[in-house]
Amino acid sequence: MTELRETEAATAAKVAAIELRGVVKSFQSHGETVTAVRGVDLTIAEGEFFSLLGPSGCGKTTTMRMIAGFDEPTEGQIILHGGDVVGVPPNRRDVNMVFQSYALFPHMSVFENVAFGLRRKNTPKDEVTRRVGEMLEIVDLAGREKRRPRELSGGQQQRVALARALVNRPRALLLDEPLGALDLKLRQAMQVELKRIQREVGITFVYVTHDQGEALTMSDRIAVMNEGVIEQLGPPRQVYERPATAFVAGFIGTSNVLSGTVARADGDTAVIEPGPGERILIPGAAAEAGGTVELTVRPEKIAIGLHPPDGEACALRGTVTEVVYLGTFTNYTVRTSTGAEVVVFVQNASSADDVAASGDTVWLSWEPRHSYAIGA
Amino acid sequence: MTTMTQAGPAVRARRGRHGWGDRLLYAYTWLIIVWLCLPIAVMIAFGFNNAKGRLNLTWQGFTFTWYGKLFAVPDLTTALVNSLTIAVLAALGATVLGTLIGLALGRFRFRGQGALNLVQFAAISAPETVMGASLLSFFVQLGVGRGYLTILVSHIMFSLSFVAVTVRARVLTLDPFVEEAAQDLGASGWTTFRLVTLPMIFPAVLAGGLLAFALSIDDFIITSFNSGSTLTFPLWIWGAQKNGLPPQVNVMGTLIFLAGVLLAVGNAVLARRRR
Question: Which fold has domain A257-373?
């Protein structure tokens, strides 16, 4: 008996909050078929903070609207907690959405806005009052129940929108660029706040954003989307450190993309030798001698010096073309012997003078484990 | 040359000195107000005229008689009741239909939308004589007897576009995601309309309805084509003025005018309080 119950519990825990299988969405626009989402598969676990990250027009918002039920997929399945919801209208899906424009009801007070969802479910009056009160406490808006949305600041409106969705205790909360309209300082404060609220309520968050910093800060996992497909899916560190494609490398943070002809392969390490004393080692590249390989190196992993590095480090010679002092960092642009431009961030740890000046000939070096071959 | 930021204080300073230009503008404004009010004042005054005989054109002393004998001319009373009931019903009909059309035009993209927009503006800008005549031939073709019902139908028809245009303009300013948010929170289509859409467009619906009422109650041209033997307030006055108008016409005009003023003042007070 006990054993059986445990197995059931284990199975229940394994049911994903949200699952997309082969989801395709095409629109008819001026007689032409536009495909916004081209075959998306993903599984979002219960309680996860999951981000859909990508430039505008990459299909991330369409994907979210299909989960909410405002758009229906052309092909594929959308499974919420084990049940296929394709064809189920948004008012009967157990997910709630926070809109980019907040979409608060302008003619209702803060209290009425937040109580809207509970009232639709015929929740008893006392319970409505209690739960709305608790939720306004969580989002730090207690005492503003009687205000109209337009009497609140942007950040406060944002929190009303959040409370209005969360008070229903949805199985998942969908957030469509919810911080997009806030200024930088408020946005950073709200990122921390959102993360705290998510931990507090323990609800699955699906977060749509084009801001890579936001996605890296808050997410448990990130799906990077481009032109309707997921280019890479993984935890923030993996997506940042090991970009799977040139697009991901370019979209997230600053990245140097280099390419070259493989001179030889040492086991699974490909070696490029662009010039005398220069070498780039790429572990796990699986490339043969004579083939071309593309790789990325993050600017903060590269050291800059006036002499060639010792030992087995990657080394490239170049000329400094630009030096930009940024406070914590100094940003160097170096033109290598092969003509590629490499960006290097050097932390200003000491108050000593800059390592190099514009026009200097320098050596760039980094550890081989920081070179990543990107997908063919 | 003052810059934009200096314009504010500069204007205020000039206003403080009461230059000639300001005084002229002040006088001109009041001249216009008096000019517009004069005919109304004459109408109100002659409602208190102690007129003897059939003509109410010269001042013969002050009296409240006509207010007491307001309904002493049976045909006039019938005409007024006709006008008021037609105006209320036409406003209701035009508001319901016009609101639905306005919502559709503002919210959705559909086949025939351009044509509908065009026909709507054509209905607003078409000369009333043309519309009246074409409605008449339409009713004759159908074999419908002219009377109360044909007046009502034609009034709904010509005021509907005004409501639709007003509502559409309002719908276009609304965030379409607000309705999606209501659905997302569990509201069905009808609940969303009742609790979210309608309250948001209500100012435009009300304005459109009042406009339809105002257009209906004083319409003469289209009504005269389609009235048959039914008389409305404007039609009765037109028919009676050859023989001299009884002062009751002035009294009714005064009361209708007062009702309008009260509505306008009430609206202004409400708008101020909402702010």
Answer: OB fold (Dihydrolipoamide Acetyltransferase, E2P) (2.40.50)
Q: How far is CA B269 from the centre of its chain?
A: 19
On average, the pLDDT of chain A sits at 88
Q: What is the ipTM of this complex?
A: 0.79
Spell out the domain ranges in chain A: 14-249, 257-373
pLDDT of A208 strictly over 80: yes
Contacts of B256-261 with CB under 8 Å at 24 or more apart are B256/B217, B257/B40, B257/B43, B257/B44, B260/B214
A89-107 per-position pLDDT tens digit: 999 999 999 999 999 999 9
Query: For residue A61, which residues of chain B lie inside 8 Å, CB to CB?
Result: none
Cβ contacts of A306 within 8 Å, gap of 6 or more: A355, A356, A360, A361, A362, A363
Chain B contact for A72, CB < 8 A?
Answer: no
Contact A105 B180 (CB under 8 A): no
pLDDT digits (tens, 9 = 90+) for A253-304: 888 888 888 888 888 888 898 888 888 988 877 777 888 888 889 898 999 9
- CA end-to-end distance (rounded Å), chain B: 36
Contact across the interface for A107 and B200, Cβ inside 8 Å = yes
> Is the minimum CB–CB distance between B198 and chain A shorter than 8 Å?
no
B200 has a chain A CB within 8 A of its CB: yes
Compute the count of residue pairs across chains A and B with CB atoms less than 8 Å apart. 59
What span, in angstroms and rounded, lies between the C-alpha atoms of B207 and B202? 8
Instruction: For B181, name the nearest residue in chain A, comparing CA atoms only.
Output: A103
CA atoms within 13 A on the CB side of A303: 13
Of B175, B178, B184, the CB nearest to A90: B184
- Structural domains of chain B sorted by starting position, each given as residue range(s) with its CATH number in brackets: 74-175+207-245 (1.10.3720.10)
- Quote the tokens at residue A327: 């406070």
CATH number for the domain whose boundaries are A14-249: 3.40.50.300
Q: What is the pTM of this model?
A: 0.78
Nearest CB to A91: which of B175, B178, B187? Answer: B187
Q: A103 to chain B: which residues are within 8 Å by CB?
A: 175, 177-178, 180-181
Q: Is the CA virtual torsion A36, A42, A46, A51 positive or negative? A: negative
What 3-state DSSP class applies to B62?
strand
Test the A interface: residue of B109, B111, B171, B185 with most A CBs within 10 Å: B185
The answer to whether A196 and A49 are in contact (CB under 8 A) is no
How far off is chain B from A41, nearest CA to CA, in Å? 24
CB A306 within 8 A of CB A318: no
**Which among A64, A97, A151, A174 is the top mutation candidate for probing chain B, defined by the most B β-carbons within 10 Å of its own β-carbon?**
A97
